[in-house]
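so the lab meeting is tmrw and i was supposed to have these ready like two days ago... anyway. pasting both below. for each one the top line is the aa sequence and the line under it is the structure tokens. i havent really looked at them closely yet so no promises
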Amino acid sequence: MVQAITLVVLTLVSFTVAYLGYSRYLAQFVDLDDDRETPAHKYQDGQEYVPSKKPVLLGHHYSSIAGGAPIVGPITATVVWGWVPAFLWVAIGNPLFGSVHDFMALTSSMRHEGKSIGYIIGEYVGERGKDMILWFAFLTIILVVAVFGLVIAVVFNAYPQAATASLVYIVLALVFGVYLYQLDLPFLPGTMAFVAAVFAGVWIGVQYPLALVPGDYPAGTIVLLSGSPLPPVLGSVNIATWIPVVLVYGFIASVLPVWVLLQPRDFLTSSLLYAGVGGTLLAVIVGTLTGAGQQLTINVPAYAGFWGGALVETTLPLFPLLFVTIACGTISGFHSLVSSGTTAKQLDKETDARTIGYGGMLGEGLLATVAIVTVAVYAEVPTGGGIGLALPNFAAGGGLILNIGFGIPEAFAAPFMGLVLVSFLLTSTDTAVRLGRYMIEELVGTPETQVQEVAANRYVNASLQVLPAYILVASGRWADLWPLFGGANQTLAALALLVATIWLANWDDQKQLISTGAPMAFMFVITTTALLYLALYQNLYQKFFQGNWADGGSTVAMASAAVQIIIALVLVWLALSIAYMGINNIREARGTGAAVADGGEPADDD
């Protein structure tokens, strides 16, 4: 039997070699130079452009990119196709695809005033290309908010302890923001005190779980409401009630200045996340060395077949769905929005981009490895997939590993791992809404009409994301949302790599384009194939032509399938159109040479 320690060691070796070697090469390749002024200093405004210490910004960035997707996706893929395909895509694809993607998105934005990938492509291919990629990103953001809002609600329902602990650390983050930025008190003592308070919040959560409506919860759970008028989501009224609460939180957090909640909360929660990811990996090592390794063997098939194993309810082709099922952990387009949205506006020094961009994505790969290990060692793998599979196994499997490695009682360890999951999700959700605000603001530009002024209002454009997201998840159709989210997210990653390749080609006609161009081409083929499969085969052919409806073909189901087809086809059309314009620009830059300023910034025409 293969031991879990094997996966852990192979991942650590792969990622260490990549960081020490490939990331150093990339840093030299884009000429990181601390003598250059970063956008955070150049445009410092106390609202969005705020220079941040590297540990604080790494905490924000890592917390924002590492949402629930690198947990749900790898676990689902492991059960559907086996642990070998899922593990290889994470261990090899992350340093060569995802980490390159995140690093290049961050550095290209840093060299373009901290603007988004949409702004950057507009500088080279024109306003039409900019608007198309911004609309693509905005649609993806709504899917992100919808999916993460649903997952958070499910976690709060499954682990009411996590709901209480989350409330505690949000309050702590607000106080920590005042401590750091208003009172200007010492960073290190404050960090030690507030991090300790975060872990005390975990204990409070275990002692005083929180739920919104009555249900089957641990003893002592505090129930706030006697009932709810909302219809059940995934069979639970509590989940249905948590969804709007989470989305309202995302709305409020996204319109606050970054120093009030985003920066301090992400730094504090990162300590919790590091403990969860690092603690689980260390527990595997300790458990193996202390003789408990026989309890940490992999209990799922190495390879379950191209069409999936017996543990799933329907056949799913490994190509291309494996690569969009693991929507994060290897490569994620959402990260390009974080890197070129909030993170690039807070970089204190250019050289920080290597640790935060490349290293942060390797950290997410470790989270994906933890997710694979937790389900691989946990014997009770249920059928189905998606959210119903991922949540109990990540928490239960992680609790088992912490118990074996460190002797932590599973009654505490499992809720702790549930809190780890929700901590990632909360930070990603409100960061996504904030990024969606940036998308709309860039689309509007300088408001010239009353309508544009309304659209540019931060409260209005945040609402334009939260309300559609709620409509998407109100029915709880997770099986429809997840593959569409994955396909859109990974296509956005291909577009971000295209933007980086365009930037490099216009910077210097001698720059090599393989580091970004090769993963870009691979991802374009994978993701457009997946979206077309979902639209034309899974929905159009299987449902409308063959009549394979799970609920007998209700009006709601038909409307949902039709919307999915339209969204998928629109995304494919946008992606191919942008790719066509981008490739033409690269050919022109390589054929004629483009005038650019030092560091890759577009030169002034005069």
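ok protien two:
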Amino acid sequence: MGYRKSDGYEMILEVYKVPAGYKIAGEIKGMLDDVELFSFPRPDRVLANNWQSWGPARVITKDFKLNFPKDLIEKFGFSASIMPEVYFDNLISDYFLAADTFVIGALKSEIGHVYFKLSDDTVSVHVRYFGKMFDEWTSIEPIVVINLNPDDGFTYYAELIAKENNVTFSSHNPVGWSSWYQYYLDFNYERMISDLEKSRELDLGYEVFQIDDAWEVDIGDWVPNEKFPSLKEVADKIASYGYKPGIWLAPFSISETSSVFKNHRDWLVKNESGVPVVAYENWNKKIYALDITHPEAVEWLKNLFVGLKANGFDYFKIDFLFAGAIQGKRYAHNVSPIEAYRKGLKVIREAVGDSFVLGCGAPLLPSVGLVDGMRISADTAPFWDPNSPDIGYPNAYYALRNVITRNFMNNVLWWNDPDCLMLRKEDTQLSDAHRELYAVTSLLLDNMIIQSDNLSYEIDENLWNLVKKYKTYGRRKFKVRGLMSGRYKITSCGINGCDELVIEDLATLQYKVNYDTPRIELSKVVEKRTDGRTFNYYMENNK
């Protein structure tokens, strides 16, 4: 620590004592790309984390090798890493790393990207600034070293992040419905109305009803296709059932077939030759990244969300957000990918005001303080496969693993979205045990609860009744043990008492739930006032 001078830059690092560890801070000046801050011997096993929502947060040992299929490298592109040129040839962990006796992690990501590079014997801590020039002394992303085991250390780490960033987010933890994991792209207005009607009949207690991918003309052309009427009509219909209208879009992604790509290529992130950079491939198309520093692109983005809000939408699931943080040449000079990404999120946040914003496919640490909810797992799926590649592909098994390993972020940085519950008993490969474990884990960790089923199917009513019951208990305090061993013990306390979930083996569904005896049985009464306000009352049941 101290003063360091290298080709093109200067840096001063300082170490401060904090409870249970140290904080490393400092300042930089000059042009920086990739700077190694310090290194230490590699432990036998570590909990490593990927940079965005879908990526794994998992325990790996020294014999672990990244096994990423070569035919998917180009397709995944920047979704796998903000640094694909490093990621596919090295073993790295983004933002934080933990071992049996410590947690090390960045507290901010506003300009640079902090990551850990693992060799056979060493872990080196880096901050990547992507060639940014600092004309004045500027604070680096601070890092903490916490000398606690991860079960305790991660909880403290999240609190330090929240304090460092002055985090605020919605106080409301929503329950609702989404179309995606039942219908995928085969969704239309008629099916929406059918499930709205069925939800009323079943009295499922939704607060949010969200339409997912399938409504738009193209990725980048955010207007309704022939399967839907106007967005105002869609939102009004949802609202007429008493639900908050929700909508999905990927605001930083531009398809090669979209009118934006054809007419506004100057709005896209480019390479040094001025050619738009492919961010990733999906929908059988090349997808490019919106340059959020271009004034016209900023105005387009702002008007898009102002218009959606004006049409009645009040819950926004914004997806594939990593596209806003890809490397490349932008309209504004000397702006890092992280700075550009955060600028885009701020534009959206200001446009929608106090509406609920759910991030997905998102760089985690740069999103802190700018979203209300965050997907913290790979996409779930109507199947459970512990033997498939752990690379962020849809899979209920890996999704639930991440729900546990990233539990500490919940209700500190945002509301964790464990991805949707699928409670149907048909058109699925999930068993009763799969459904129960996913639902109970999500409830005991006090996560967002969004269901995705064709409501005309037979639904596991017992599990949804459990959801409704637990939501009457309000917020929960929870503790997770066993993050490094993979034998998890979740203790979750609310006004009903303290419940316990013990998972001996997640892959083979060896688990046990111990419910406390409720001390108070409550009934929820919802009163909707004529002025539009909603009041929830909880009354003790008569015995």
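from a quick look at the 2nd one: The chain has a mean pLDDT of 96. The radius of gyration is 23 Å. will dig more after coffe
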